[in-house]
């Protein structure tokens, strides 16, 4: 077959002249081609030039090539273009070959047939990674080129050899010039990128002047790299395949660095010349207004850079360049949506701050030492009012102060499904329990209705803050005096005091302790809104961990504002998302004490997912450890309904996407209350852990997810005193292997890892995991 494809034939000169004329027609067709996937350089004009050269060369070669070689090219071109409209071109080439063979037409007819096939190849769709259509086109045309070469005479070969040698020499010189420019630019580009990262990371701790200086230094580095890459003697290399992609990659990186540095410098300079975010009880609306165009410009720059980088990331690149570009792409893909969200949030701040009308917000102070499914019970509340940026405390009190008013009002809270699941908490009588569900959106609606029934005041939004959130706020506002406690609390002491210290201090005076809760809540609120606060960047950086871990949540009942805030993660959304698997362990204290400060929980979730059918089975092994002592702590902590003291009785809820088929408690099967909820299932059981004891539950799940190569899982952690630890292992168990993962590490036949770790690494409110499978 190979010999037949490259059979050698001599051509008389007149025929060559005719073939050359035919090749000019092919060149003209190539120039006018609406290029699709065949883009050897990514530069439109250079690609058109290469298409012209390639089309003319193959058409000319068709006049000297053997008929089997031309038929071979036409057949492969037909396969490559099927089922597009361009399939007609290789079919016409077949017709031309058959007609030429039967009628003994001159050899220039072969140039026409080859020209038709190459036009089809120039219009291949963009398939695979960048450059794949170009590579296919060249490979398909090789037999025609080889056959034509073999048919040439010795003199013609010599001429072509000299021409090709000159062309190769030019490419080497041009490529060498580009390599020199790249070597000059690369170190400076890396240093500038590292300086920019460090400037952004340390911005919350640095002064605006220092941040501006660091960013300016990085900007200068990007500009030096850009100057090196835009030198006149580098321009010719942008028309050379492969070399062009590497130049484009470096150029795009420098351009992205320059534009993003410009935006960051502008933001830092505005912070430097402006007052803080809050001063004398008023939010600096002008500062927020000044930030909006800056953040919007940064979002546009990120989006543009992301598009350019993603377009080049799959190009003809050597390993190190591809790795660096992919790393940049990952950073942009993470930063871009966050910046766009920040711009959208700034767009609704006027409404949130009462510019368009007075807003009232109910702040709930919670404590996870006595758990509810959202996190902790409600100990106190503060009602604040926002009017044109001015924040005023309207009222504050203990949650129990509302109970008598609720009992008198007897509000009808929630629908039937809510009452079936959470009626046991009697929120219409006990406002403390308004954090009973794991979904803050639902809790906020219930708290709003209960507060309205108790006080006659409707609110526009609800805020939940636990001791970890209070510590984050005091990191910004500074220490506060708490007269009822007789002490000063700051970011380093307030969390431990609210979780444990207050109960020991007021062991014999529970009402005095209740006053402390209200005083702390009010003092912190006053400090946050009346003391000077730094700019938005520092505020966001200080509060981000508390938001991420579910310690600070905010919801507004304005639909547009709520939609924007939802994207930040601050609204505490809960439940199944799309086609993803989901797991979340939630507990509620049944002792009426603060014993959950001694509770530790570990969850191991093992999943088998079949990409072909979507069939999914999971096993969640939950280990509960109660480190509470039997004495030496106030009854408020280890007593109450605990019998004997130190026993931890709880309602434990497992929320899952998959249905529960079996529950084992310490190795024995037990009954469980299972209901449909939040797009999946909730399974609740009441159990007791003795002091110093451990109990183990094994949940076995079964269900079906949408079939596909990717398994997705969301792990949602309850904000606890001691953060949960979730260990996850994903496999298919049969015909598939995990090849890539986000959130886990692929090892052999499984993807495993700790998603939420206790101790030094805090848990996340929602930790996304994904695993990509391929056949074994």
List the helices and strands and how they pair.
Layout: H1 2-5, H2 13-31, H3 44-64, H4 67-81, H5 88-103, H6 108-121, H7 132-151, H8 154-202, H9 208-229, H10 243-273, E1 278-279, E2 282-283, H11 285-313, H12 319-352, E3 359-372, E4 375-387, E5 390-398, H13 403-409, H14 416-422, H15 440-455, E6 461-465, H16 467-477, E7 480-482, E8 487-489, H17 494-505, H18 510-530, H19 536-548, E9 552-556, H20 559-566, E10 581-589, E11 599-609, E12 615-626, H21 635-638, E13 648-656, E14 659-665, E15 668-669, E16 673-677, E17 680-689, E18 694-704, E19 710-715, E20 725-731, E21 736-742, E22 745-747, E23 750-756, E24 767-775
Parallel strand pairs: 3-6, 10-19, 11-20
Antiparallel strand pairs: 1-2, 3-4, 4-5, 6-9, 7-8, 10-13, 11-12, 12-18, 13-17, 14-15, 14-18, 16-17, 19-24, 20-23, 21-24, 22-23
Helix pairs in contact: 2-3, 2-6, 3-6, 3-7, 4-5, 4-6, 4-7, 5-6, 8-9, 8-10, 9-10, 10-11, 11-12, 12-20, 13-15, 16-17, 16-18, 16-19, 17-18
Characterize this entry briefly:
By secondary structure, the protein is an alpha+beta fold.
At CATH level 2, the architecture of the largest domain is 3-Layer(aba) Sandwich
What's the tally of helices? 21
* Radius of gyration over C-alpha positions, nearest whole angstrom: 35 Å
General form? elongated
Q: Helix amount, in percent?
A: 40-55%
| Poorly predicted spans | 1-14, 31-37, 757-762
Q: Please, what is the average pLDDT?
A: 80
Q: How many structural domains does the protein architecture include? A: 4
Derived structural class: alpha+beta
